Amino acid sequence: MDELIKKIAGLGLPGILFVIATATSGGSVAAVVAMLSSLGGPLGLLGGLGLLGLVGALAEYLAAFGTENILKLIYTERSKTESVRFLLKEIKELPITDELKLKLKHHISPVVITEPEEGPTPKIIEIVDEEPVI
User: Fold this and answer.
1) Rounded CA separation 49/126 (Å)
2) Measured by CB atoms within 10 angstroms of the end CB, which terminus of the chain is less buried, N or C?
3) Distance in angstroms (rounded) separating the CA atoms of residues 19 and 126
4) Residues with Cβ < 8 Å from 129, sequence gap 6 or more?
């Protein structure tokens, strides 16, 4: 079952790219051929089809490797040049599951920095100096 899902994910991305390109080109055959030729660069139409195949193979590889591992590698590299606090804030806002957010936070900062919670406000005590009564 896992292999089937990987294959579908691999074939799905080029198909989505082709549908988007077809929709933006107006759907005519000449426009689709021109679009594929422009994607192929100097290799023309065959290069465009090859590029869609390459994107499919890359998507299959990424699906096999796993989203969690890819995100961990990305944030490990970014933590070398960016502040951990900024990355933790960015992870908090990502549209991913809470479990994956927690794993990413723990990966880039084993001691997770949390925002200070607002506790009870401190009491204000006023000290009044009175003169002694004689």
Assistant:
1) 79
2) C
3) 73
4) none
